[in-house]
Amino acid sequence: MRKIILIACMSKNKAIGNKGNLVINLKGDMQFFKEKTISHSVVMGRKTWDSLPKKHKPLPYRTNYVLSKKENSTIDKVVTDWKNSGRNDNLYVIGGEEIYNKFLDLNLFDEAYITTVNQHIFEADTYFPYQKLLSKTKSMKIIESIKDRYSIIKFYS
């Protein structure tokens, strides 16, 4: 069954970005992200798209969707296109904060993979809506934990 899956990496205080850049660059999380999203579709906001290095635009070996107010793209259009694509892949929601909020507000996700790093990051302007995710999920389980550094938690809607 095809699924819509949120995927993010956040600090203890839910920070995910600052001035268009990720606030956490964790090798293990980057590898996890790549393993999960390769050969699947990803959807992101325009700011997240703009933050990608040129050599990673579009994200290789993935179908890339970018939501932009300027281009009048909508979640409904993206999801419809993905559903009608004929591909047997999942749709990963990869950020940023506004896009996560919209998918959560619409209850438009089946699962979420959230890496939580055991540190506070105070220079941040973008946050993951973790409380909203908790309010919309039925269960969760830790799928990986690296000592006191970070944990990857899978949530089920």
Describe this structure in words.
The protein is built from 5 helices and 10 strands. The protein has 157 residues and is of the alpha/beta class. The strands form 2 sheets. A 7-stranded mixed beta sheet has the order 5-4-6-1-7-10-9, sandwiched between helices. A 3-stranded antiparallel beta sheet has the order 3-2-8, with no helix packed on it. The protein is globular.
Which features does this protein show?
alpha/beta; Dihydrofolate Reductase, subunit A; three-stranded antiparallel β-sheet; 26% helix; globular
**What is the rounded distance between the termini?**
15 Å
Q: What is the structural class?
A: alpha/beta
The number of helices is 5
Percentage of residues in DSSP E strands: 25-35%
Question: How would you spell out the order of helices and strands?
Answer: EEEHEHEHEHEEHEE
Average the pLDDT over all residues and give the rounded result: 94
CA radius of gyration is: 15 Å
Major β-sheet annotation: 7 strands, mixed
Whole-number tally of structural domains: 1
Write a concise synopsis of the structure shown.
It contains five helices and ten strands, in the order E-E-E-H-E-H-E-H-E-H-E-E-H-E-E. With 157 residues, the chain is of the alpha/beta class.
Task: Give the secondary structure arrangement, pairings included.
Blueprint: E1 4-10, E2 15-18, E3 21-22, H1 27-37, E4 41-45, H2 46-51, E5 63-67, H3 75-83, E6 91-93, H4 97-105, E7 111-117, E8 126-127, H5 130-135, E9 139-146, E10 150-156
Parallel strand pairs: 1-6, 1-7, 4-5, 4-6
Antiparallel strand pairs: 2-3, 2-8, 7-10, 9-10
